[in-house]
Amino acid sequence: MDANQRIARISAHLNPPNLDQMGGDGSGLRRVGCRAKGGSPGFKVAILGAAGGIGQPLAMLMKMNPLVSVLHLYDVANAPGVTADISHMDTSAVVRGFLGQPQLEEALTGMDLVIIPAGVPRKPGMTRDDLFNINAGIVRTLSEAIAKCCPKAVVNIISNPVNSTVPIAAEVFKKAGTFDPKKLMGVTMLDVVRANTFVAEVMSLDPREVDVPVVGGHAGVTILPLLSQVKPPCSFTQKEIEYLTDRIQNGGTEVVEAKAGAGSATLSMAYAAVKFADACLRGLRGDANIVECAFVSSHVTELPFFASKVRLGRSGIDEVYGLGPLNEYERIGLEKAKKELGGSIEKGVTFVKK
Ligand SMILES: NC(=O)C1=CN([C@@H]2O[C@H](COP(=O)(O)OP(=O)(O)OC[C@H]3O[C@@H](n4cnc5c(N)ncnc54)[C@H](O)[C@@H]3O)[C@@H](O)[C@H]2O)C=CC1
Ligand SMILES: O=C([O-])CC(=O)C(=O)O
């Protein structure tokens, strides 16, 4: 092949159909897509909210994941820039960008996994529930498009308040007749990541060796670390239990306050989201014994959704595990968690039904 032919081949990748007009919104912006030669067979993953504080590092880390063959980056702003940037990474996933509502359906068609970090983050003094008014509508719109374009995809919801946004997505899918409880997961992995880190600090362990089940939901007292079930087995004083429980429950607020108005956890969240997404993809591939905590449709308590350990497999969630033996402190925590969680779930369901 001579130089002219090589250049022609490269520009073929940068011209239609891989570099299309960003038609729909009239912005004249372009959709960038680069097909890496030798791209491995793998899964198709879309990130909705890909240009945000979480979305950007999440996109970068998913581009590094060898299980991903196609990566779709959708946002209502700045998707072309993030896509061009990420697409220059010399890993095999093909990256395509999609900007704005007119391109949402194209972004979702054919996807195996959809990860949703779209929505506004907290500022100091706010609760996650204070985000409901804006984020509920965003998650509803995105879920409607998922029901239409990739109803069999596994969906990972990051947008807060997770305790309400997951029931919102479920209700939208029920309305559309596509709801599969095995495919819908609220991402609570950051609570587990924090719990592992804080327990490791207290016990002088390597955090990679620590596994703390965190159950319930993803806000304040609904975040319930089961410190009696930590692996490796640890014996904590009551003071340590109270310190750890409080720090894990308020880890998000710790970051919101430290960022002082510039948002909430983004980098640790992207790390946690990728850890969870990778577990989902390994499950879809058929790997055995993939067990992680997630906020899912559940019969573990009387509530319709609850976070607990789940086994991930070829169809999404293969099994939802019960809570195991709880001590008195955890039983009291569970009652508090259920009380708040019930209201948040109901709020999400009502939002779609009204
Ligand atoms: N589940 C969890 O553990 C955690 C959840 N979060 C939540 O994740 C969400 C995102 O946080 P950040 O990335 O820091 O916020 P951000 O504001 O930096 O990014 C959000 C992105 O969503 C985009 N967006 C807004 N409306 C959209 C729509 N209709 N469709 C697609 N994209 C849309 C924005 O353009 C922006 O790029 C927040 O709700 C936050 O509370 C944050 C940390 C942890
Ligand atoms: O605290 C927030 O608003 C963001 C979040 O969910 C977390 O960091 O756990």
Main sheet: strand order:
3-6-5-4-7-8-9
Average of the residue pLDDT scores: 92
CATH class membership of the largest domain = Alpha Beta
Count of extended strands: 14
Keywords: Glyoxylate bypass, NAD, Oxidoreductase, Peroxisome, Tricarboxylic acid cycle
Main location: other
Domain Lactate/malate dehydrogenase C-terminal: 188-351
Binding site for NAD(+): 49-55, 75, 135, 158-160, 269
Written account of the structure:
The chain has 354 residues and is of the alpha/beta class. It has two domains: 40-187, 3-Layer(aba) Sandwich (Rossmann fold), CATH 3.40.50.720; 188-353, Alpha-Beta Complex (L-2-Hydroxyisocaproate Dehydrogenase, Chain A, domain 2), CATH 3.90.110.10. It is 42% helix and 18% strand. It is built from eleven helices and 14 strands. The chain has helices at residues 3-14, 55-63, 79-87, 104-108, 132-149, 162-176, 189-203, 238-249, 251-259, 267-285, 328-353, and strands at 20-21, 30-31, 33-34, 43-48, 68-75, 94-99, 113-116, 154-157, 184-186, 214-216, 223-225, 290-297, 305-313, 316-320. The strands form four sheets. It has a seven-stranded mixed sheet with strand order 3-6-5-4-7-8-9, sandwiched between helices. Helix 5 (132-149) runs parallel beside helix 6 (162-176), helix 6 crosses helix 11 (328-353) and helix 7 (189-203) runs antiparallel to helix 8. The longest helix has 26 residues, at 328-353. The N and C termini lie far apart (63 Å). Residues 12-39 have low confidence and may be disordered. Oxaloacetate ion (OAA) is lined by residues 121-122, 128, 160, 190, 251-253, 255-256, 264-265. Belongs to the LDH/MDH superfamily. MDH type 1 family. Its EC number is 1.1.1.37. Substrate binds at residues 122, 128, 160, 194.
